[in-house]
Amino acid sequence: MKKSLSIIIPAYNEELRIKDTLKAYLGFFKEKKKNKEIEDFEILVVLNGCKDNTKKIVQQQICKELILLEFERAGKGFAIMQGFRKALERKMNIIGFVDADMATTPEAFYNLVLNIGNYGGVIASRYIKGAKISPKQTIQRIIASRIFNLWIKIFLVINYQDTQCGAKLFRREAIEKVINELTMTKWAFDVDLLYKMKKNGFKIKEVPTVWSDKKYSTINFMKSGPLMALAVARLRLLNSPFKFLIKPKMKINKIPDGNLRKMKDMKFREVGDYCHKNPLIKWLFWKRLKTMLKMAEGINGVKRVLDFGAGSGIFMPTLAKNFPEVYSLDLEVSSIEYVKELYRLKNVNIITGDDSNRLPFKDDFFDVIFAADVLEHFKDSYYIQEEFKRVLRKGGCLVVSGPTENIFYRLARKYVYKQKKPEDHYTDVYDVMKKTSRFLKIEKKKTLPCLLIPGFKIYKAKKAN
After folding, report:
1. Residue 455 has pLDDT above 70, yes or no
2. Does any domain span residue 181?
3. End residue of a domain, out of 208, 242, 276
């Protein structure tokens, strides 16, 4: 099989080293491609909240083989996962990552390519026979790394001598299988990745490497070691029956009333309820979003979410805070763009929709779809729900809220809002839920504000494995 290669380089404040690394890797692999030793390659540089000139330096090296991605800082693991997702959208059949400091030379990284064979992946190791380290590590660092390695073996029973070397390479199908299962974004990302590879039956080969410790290192192993050890313990708990003890709760990120009133003055729609002078109405609408978010807490491996019918983007800061990759889709997006700029949300992608029932996304693309008070606007939501099933991954969920249109809801609309029923409300949440059940398994339901006065119905529906 001809090898085509995606190399991910996560970068946080790497202005002193990134230029030499890119020149070396681009030059080396262009030569390999020219000599037909590889079919093709690309380098994905993922900027992770850089505050120096790293972005400018990378932009100076841009060519057809070099792709630049940029995100707010959320850990090296987060940056690599975003690189994985971008690489999976492209054509390369092996995907790897390497540190920006060139502690692993292009020649040493290419050795991984030569050794991948029929394995699911191959990782560089500094602690097996044949490895060359320059300069030699201190006794303290060696002892600390060996203790950490023993800790990993005890907790996770994965038998590698070096999980932390920053050069690893995997087959495309292996990354596709585990990408939605990864939970660690910082201290134990490499361990989590190898652990999930093992759980999914992929054999990973460990090979000796040539490794050179560089100046200006941004990682102090002696200080970060305890945090890494705690992260491994947390990883073990997350993959045990006791995961409920440490799973963090998601939180609503409310837009302040002042900003909401300004958006209302700008004639952005669907804003007033969230800053209403009646505190009960204001509470109810924020509670609706909070309940929808809570329903997503029990869904494993959530990375990519869609806010379908995002309206004014009220939910977007919350989704951006709780999930790595957010897509907001609506027919009119000026308000959504305003909120994105207001909060400087770099992990949000705004998509302008159309009147068709076809969603502009690949099959199995999303982990969760949120649809807050939007499906009642469809004369028949059957076809869009069929699309929801298509773009949700197996095990992914749809979270929906909608008005019940019962007598209490109609009275509130008439006497509190002084409004008639909107002409574009064609149905109610019960009809929508019935159509949902044709495609997805409804798992959980909740009524707001209470059972006696059911104004809104919220439910979660799962795509079966």
Report:
1. yes
2. yes
3. 242
